[in-house]
């Protein structure tokens, strides 16, 4: 058996030990003995680790033992060889796992609660239904007052009536078209099994629905003013007519005040959901875990550098 082969066996036994701390301690003592040219300790150490080399070590002289362990030192410094087929298989496995990770987002399908989506779309359709009624009543109100009655109203009320009627119709048409299109295209996407596209559509058209809701409120408010002016014209300027005008005005104010209260109460429904405490705890734990992992890696790198310096002392 050659010295190099024996050194390879001895290095293999050192790498396959049960405890890295024990191996490091024995290796440090062995290198210290090499530096001190203590061949007896080196010989006893090798006999203890590999009994099969006892005869070979016994026959060696001191210089040969030191040379033998010097070869062992070079083998320990070199990285262990691996089976190329194992590397190829692991690379293939990594590639497949990476491909699977990249394919997952593409193959994911958004599972929607169709009942909840139906409720949401029904709410949009209700906006379109109500505002279409006000737009229709606003257009028909133009025919409810004759030219003679317009002359009795005078200039300011006549123009107020015309402007409010026009705003009722135009704002109502805008809101009706927007809400109807949003509901129609969302239902078309669901029917075509395009749930993700439906969510993207609702997200991208959110600003238009907000504008349509503002027009919805404008149309209703103008329609209420329109009805108030019609009551004033039809009942005349008598005491009963003035009383009806005041009652209608008070009802208009009550409706506006209650509408603002309902909108304020509905604000939390459309507010973003708060982050749960469990999510915040998970994020905190993840950040702490990453910090501790980085500290462990730095400690490992410093220990590895220290060991390399020990091997290079000679």
UniProtKB/TrEMBL annotation:
<keyword id="KW-0472">Membrane</keyword>
<protein>
    <submittedName>
        <fullName>Uncharacterized protein</fullName>
    </submittedName>
</protein>
<feature type="transmembrane region" description="Helical">
    <location>
        <begin position="126"/>
        <end position="145"/>
    </location>
</feature>
<feature type="transmembrane region" description="Helical">
    <location>
        <begin position="157"/>
        <end position="186"/>
    </location>
</feature>
<feature type="region of interest" description="Disordered">
    <location>
        <begin position="79"/>
        <end position="107"/>
    </location>
</feature>
<feature type="region of interest" description="Disordered">
    <location>
        <begin position="1"/>
        <end position="20"/>
    </location>
</feature>
<feature type="compositionally biased region" description="Polar residues">
    <location>
        <begin position="287"/>
        <end position="301"/>
    </location>
</feature>
<feature type="region of interest" description="Disordered">
    <location>
        <begin position="275"/>
        <end position="301"/>
    </location>
</feature>
<keyword id="KW-0812">Transmembrane</keyword>
<feature type="transmembrane region" description="Helical">
    <location>
        <begin position="212"/>
        <end position="233"/>
    </location>
</feature>
<feature type="compositionally biased region" description="Basic and acidic residues">
    <location>
        <begin position="91"/>
        <end position="107"/>
    </location>
</feature>
<keyword id="KW-1133">Transmembrane helix</keyword>
């Amino acid at each position: 058996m050659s010295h190099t082969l024996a050194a390879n066996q001895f290095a293999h036994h050192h790498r396959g030990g049960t405890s890295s701390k024990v191996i490091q301690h024995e290796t440090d003592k062995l290198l210290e003995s090499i530096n001190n040219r203590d061949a007896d300790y080196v010989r006893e150490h090798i006999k203890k680790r590999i009994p099969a080399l006892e005869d070979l070590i016994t026959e060696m002289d001191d210089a040969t033992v030191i040379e033998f362990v010097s070869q062992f030192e070079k083998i320990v410094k070199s990285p262990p060889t691996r089976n190329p087929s194992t590397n190829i298989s692991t690379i293939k496995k990594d590639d497949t796992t990476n491909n699977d990770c990249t394919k997952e987002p593409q193959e994911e399908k958004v599972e929607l609660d169709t009942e909840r989506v139906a409720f949401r779309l029904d709410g949009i359709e209700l906006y379109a239904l109500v505002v279409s009624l006000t737009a229709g009543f606003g257009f028909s109100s133009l025919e409810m007052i004759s030219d003679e009655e317009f002359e009795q109203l005078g200039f300011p009320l006549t123009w107020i009536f015309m402007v409010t009627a026009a705003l009722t119709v135009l704002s109502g048409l805008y809101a009706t078209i927007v809400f109807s299109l949003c509901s129609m295209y969302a239902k078309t996407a669901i029917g075509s099994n395009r749930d993700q596209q439906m969510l993207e559509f609702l997200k991208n058209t959110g600003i238009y629905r907000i504008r349509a809701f503002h027009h919805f409120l404008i149309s209703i408010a103008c329609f209420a003013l329109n009805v108030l002016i019609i009551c004033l014209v039809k009942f005349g300027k008598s005491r009963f007519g003035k009383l009806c005008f005041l009652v209608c005005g008070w009802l208009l104010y009550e409706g506006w005040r209650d509408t603002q209260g309902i909108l304020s109460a509905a604000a939390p429904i459309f507010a973003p959901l708060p982050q749960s405490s469990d999510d915040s705890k998970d994020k905190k734990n993840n950040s702490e875990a990453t910090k501790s992992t980085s500290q462990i890696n730095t400690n490992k790198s410093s220990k590895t550098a220290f060991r390399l310096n020990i091997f290079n002392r000679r």
